[in-house]
Specification:
Number of helices: 20
CATH class of the largest domain: Alpha Beta
Structural class: alpha/beta
Shape: globular
Bound molecules: 6-O-phosphono-alpha-D-glucopyranose
CATH architecture of the largest domain: 3-Layer(aba) Sandwich
Radius of gyration: 23 Å
Amino acid sequence: MTLQAGQYQAAIDAKIQEFNTRNFTESFWQKDASLWVQDEKAQQSVRSFMGWLRVAETMQQAVPEIEQFVQEVKAAGFKHVVVMGMGGSTMAPIVFKESFERSADGLPMSVLDTTDPGTVRQIEEAVPLADTLFIVASKSGTTAEPLAFGDYFYHRLRELKGDKAGENFVAITDPGSAFVAAAQAQGYRRIFLNFAEVGGRFSALSYFGLVPAALYGISIEEMLTRAIGMMRACGAYGAVEQNPGLELGVALGVLAEAGRDKLTLVVPGSLNDLGLWLEQLIAESTGKEGKGILPVAGEPVREPAVYGQDRVFVYVGYQGQPDEANRAKVAALQQAGHPVIQILMNDPLDLGQEFFRWEVATAVASAVFGINPFDQPNVQAAKTATDSLMKVVQEQGQLPQGEAPKVTENGVAYYTAVSGNDATDVLRAFFAQAQPGNFLNIQAYLTETPAVNDSLQELRRQVQEQLHLATTSGYGPRFLHSTGQYHKGGPDTGLFVQLTVDHPQDIQLPGRSYSFGTFKNAQAAGDLQALHDYNRRTLRLHLGADAELGLRQVLAALPAALQR
Ligand SMILES: O=P(O)(O)OC[C@H]1O[C@H](O)[C@H](O)[C@@H](O)[C@@H]1O
């Protein structure tokens, strides 16, 4: 890793000095919760979530058990794996799937982490159902989405295999979770019990990451060896500046406090989804009490003039891979005075060490801020609002009618607190609220397609170029279990654009009075409600029946709105 902090180096050095004087490294490994928080209850919570520090060592003992399980699954004739869950329970498999070429002896893998009916249908149609192993991954065993996914596909398998449906199902959950009993009752093939003291976003190197990785054909033994190498480098003794995780964490904490709080990730194509994992780790751990680091992933990389003074750029790539376009741009950004961090891996197996490095760094940055990195107090706000809306659905058969749109133009309805006579007017008034150091967040409750991705990137590009704002984008409901914490708990600097759509081809949930589409609509409406409760600036765009067409209409109205 190289860190070029420019004018901020002195402040980083001073903080490192202070941490050394306090014997930070030793206290960190002794799980001294007073490094983060002073309240006794909060300290207890910190101590109870430090299991990730040594989980790679623990998991080394479990490698033979996992590899034997993989052999058993293959011998039973399974041809595909679907991992189903939200947030920390599925982020690592998403990264593995994109970063590694599947080896010849690995099984193809899909990940389902959305209630979007279009995506559920796509997965259902793409996999050989009877020969597919479904992994329901939920630490708490109470998260609504994975339980719904499990029910839906279990029901489908019952239709194909009757009482033998459970053979196709595996659970990964915490010991004692309510889901353990349910999975046993349904005859699940296997239940992997994870560790209560390892939180979701710190669980990549536990069963949550490693069981899917092994099925996909990745050498989990080697990945753990590399993780343990980093663990030793971040070890209990020695100065902070010789400790890769601690040094990174102090730097990120100090830079954020100096206003460089938008951690902008630049990666080669095969590492794009590392951004999803980092987003969850960093945003959910640090985005609270009005503080935090905003991870910015997947944003088009531009010339220095486009950026404000709120960025730190992090390049993660490969030693042997030139990735010239990105590296040249990052070099120009550093030249222009932006802080730049570079991390070069040898190959994707080094992700094991990077997971560990970033987990340490995130915990350390949280110590700089004086917050508990292991809770997510504001995620609950959206869940509670969604639950109330789902109660209405169960009682009245549908979601309550919301407010009227400010404008409807070309089939797109605009809902926001500001007013205007037409779409461009409303967009102009909405974006006029932006201040330097603010960010745009796009919340896409849509089916992911290449065309939708292109339109979202175009929206970001225009806002970046005209307003010099950092831009982030996430698919809902995935981001609710990730960056959603920062949106409500972090500083009030976000402008939120929520994109929703009709679900003409909805899917009914078996044994329930509602569909995936209604559930998803309730999640969008619930989070919007939560954002309003925190006085956030929001614009909801309901795109009608065709998301791609609706987005094109919005993009057509945007340039005039962004002219200043
Ligand atoms: O693994 P689970 O208990 O199902 O939780 C899945 C995710 O949902 C929650 O909303 C949390 O905010 C995330 O940190 C967590 O990773």
